[in-house]
Task: inverse folding
């Protein structure tokens, strides 16, 4: 069976990846490097300490490592002109809900105007052929009155909190650019938006996320304070949607019919309460580990959408995409990653090893791929 992601497509290909120093960006930069892509990373700095970017020495395999702020239009024009990418994957963002309450302005400037600036740089750069704009499952309008069902790509965009709303705005921006500038297939750029959420994996140190909190407790041997143990989320390994983004870029490069929005969500069976994840991880961790209800959370947790699930039928049918690692395998890989870290292993080797294992594994019940016209 052909692999989900085609290494031959990526070998030698010029890729510009924004947000490569972040959690998802570092995994994607490594994956692209492992296939021989010529990767330019662009980010304003390294967002956490420690970071996957530093532990896995992501910078070592980049063609260029650019420090620029996506709010700076001129800096982006300059970076695109210098590096002449063929594929652009835009991931740089203020990526967290709680900081979006503390500083909505920076969140909107980064996530909305940052996306405008990236798309303007795309328009100004003749080499660009395919653009994947990464937003979030939170971009959908989570009407409480709505009958709970999984979101499909054409559902209305919205978002209650500034982060979610900024991602909805980024979707509207991408849609306007698609209709206004990229609709005619004249050899110019093709644009798609990718929506996924609740991704987990080794190497995440972002504040306020479940796995970083649990694994920090595991490495310290301290009890783990857990908020919202009954909140149900559709969890998936970070490599699952990243495979979707790569597959989408390959498809866009070949066909203008794949422009538009795409969901990359886990199977509904992988929607589990926080307490289930915490229990499984404490069981899998080799030493004594326990979690407890956080009696004193720092601030009341801001509003979060109650029901979030994505219908990924379109990606399954038109891209042949499906998750590869389901939740049990995902948690086992996470524990293996943090155990290796605790043992002082080379985390570049460990992370590349997980990417290799993922890339060689079959997707879950993968249906036969269909062309965009259903052929
Ligand atoms: N992690 C998740 O669960 C999740 C879920 C849904 C969507 N996403 C989206 O996926 C993308 C990547 O998420 P992540 O978890 O890797 O985020 P992250 O916070 O770990 O990394 C963010 C990246 O963006 C860069 N960045 C932030 N502001 C910037 C600016 N003004 N200029 C240039 N670079 C800037 C950071 O330096 C970093 O490289 C984001 O767009 C995020 O909104 C993530």
Result:
């Amino acid at each position: 069976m052909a692999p989900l992601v085609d290494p031959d497509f990526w070998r030698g290909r010029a890729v510009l990846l924004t947000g490569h120093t972040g959690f998802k960006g570092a995994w994607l930069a490594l994956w692209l490097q492992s296939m021989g892509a010529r990767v330019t990373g662009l980010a304003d700095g390294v967002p956490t300490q420690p970071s996957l970017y530093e532990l896995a020495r992501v910078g070592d395999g980049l063609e260029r490592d650019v420090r620029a702020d996506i709010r700076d239009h001129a800096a982006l024009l300059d970076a695109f002109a210098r590096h002449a990418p063929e594929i652009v994957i835009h991931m740089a963002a203020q990526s967290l809900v709680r900081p979006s309450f503390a500083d909505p302005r920076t969140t909107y400037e980064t996530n909305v105007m940052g996306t405008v600036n990236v798309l303007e740089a795309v328009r100004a750069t003749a080499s660009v052929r395919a653009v994947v704009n990464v937003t979030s499952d939170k971009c959908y309008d989570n009407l409480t009155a709505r009958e709970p069902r999984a979101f499909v790509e054409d559902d209305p965009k919205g978002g209650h909190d500034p982060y979610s709303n900024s991602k909805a705005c980024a979707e509207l921006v991408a849609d306007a650019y698609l209709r206004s500038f990229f609709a005619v297939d004249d050899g110019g750029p093709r644009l798609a938006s990718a929506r996924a959420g609740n991704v987990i994996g080794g190497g995440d140190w972002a504040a306020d996320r479940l796995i970083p909190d649990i694994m920090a407790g595991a490495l310290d041997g301290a009890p783990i304070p857990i908020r919202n143990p009954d909140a149900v989320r559709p969890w998936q390994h970070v490599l699952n949607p990243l495979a979707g983004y790569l597959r989408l870029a390959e498809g866009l490069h070949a066909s203008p019919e794949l422009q538009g929005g795409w969901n990359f969500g886990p199977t509904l069976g992988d929607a589990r309460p926080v307490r289930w994840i915490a229990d499984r991880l404490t069981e899998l961790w080799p030493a004594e580990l326990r979690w407890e209800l956080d009696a004193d959370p720092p601030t009341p947790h801001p509003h979060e959408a109650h029901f979030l699930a994505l219908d990924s039928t379109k990606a399954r049918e038109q891209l042949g995409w499906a998750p590869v690692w389901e939740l049990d395998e995902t948690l086992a890989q996470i524990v293996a990653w943090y155990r290796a870290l605790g043992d002082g292993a080379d985390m570049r080797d460990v992370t590349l090893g997980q990417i290799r294992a993922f890339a060689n594994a079959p997707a879950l019940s993968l249906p036969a791929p269909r062309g965009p016209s259903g052929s």
